[in-house]
């Protein structure tokens, strides 16, 4: 395992939590293993591990981008990750307010619904 891969895995675990990463790792097989390795090294090892901005800031950026692009499953995953990144519910709402202006009210409205449900699930857990 390369140093970049090790760093990516450590960052991925810090942000998403061990339970999520363990499930994802257990579910990968010969078909998607190369993809999992690529995102661990590229997204988590190169981008999330840069240290130029905080995990909180990166979390807010990621949530806004995912919402603006309509990536619902990934959006819920990253809303759950706010428990580890330090981004508050207010931070998430601020990010989604930006989505409304720059990517469209329907995208933001849908994302706010996803965030509300995800935060409710997190509170119930």
Automatic annotation (TrEMBL):
Top EC class for this record = lyase
Q: Which UniProt keywords apply?
A: Lyase
Q: Which GO terms describe its molecular function?
A: 4-carboxymuconolactone decarboxylase activity; peroxiredoxin activity
- Gene behind this chain? pcaC
EC?
Answer: 4.1.1.44
Q: Which InterPro entries match?
A: 4CMD/NDH-1_regulator (IPR052512), AhpD-like (IPR029032), CMD-like (IPR003779), Decarb_PcaC (IPR012788)
SUPFAM superfamilies xref list: AhpD-like (SSF69118)
Among PANTHER family, the record links this protein to: 4-CARBOXYMUCONOLACTONE DECARBOXYLASE FAMILY PROTEIN, CARBOXYMUCONOLACTONE DECARBOXYLASE-LIKE DOMAIN-CONTAINING PROTEIN
Pfam entry (one)? CMD
Task: Enumerate the spans annotated as Carboxymuconolactone decarboxylase-like domain.
Answer: 34-116
Entry protein name: 4-carboxymuconolactone decarboxylase
């Amino acid at each position: 395992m390369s140093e970049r891969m090790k760093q990516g895995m450590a960052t991925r675990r810090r942000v998403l939590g061990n339970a999520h990463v363990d499930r994802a790792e257990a579910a990968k097989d010969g078909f998607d293993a190369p993809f999992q390795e690529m995102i661990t090294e590229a997204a988590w090892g190169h981008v999330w591990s840069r240290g130029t901005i905080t995990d909180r800031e990166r979390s807010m950026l990621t949530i806004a981008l995912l919402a603006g692009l309509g990536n619902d499953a990934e959006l819920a995953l990253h809303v759950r990750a706010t428990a580890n990144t330090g981004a508050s519910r207010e931070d998430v709402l601020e990010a989604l307010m930006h989505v409304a202006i720059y990517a469209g009210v329907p995208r933001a409205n849908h994302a706010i619904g996803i965030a509300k449900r995800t935060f409710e699930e997190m509170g119930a857990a």
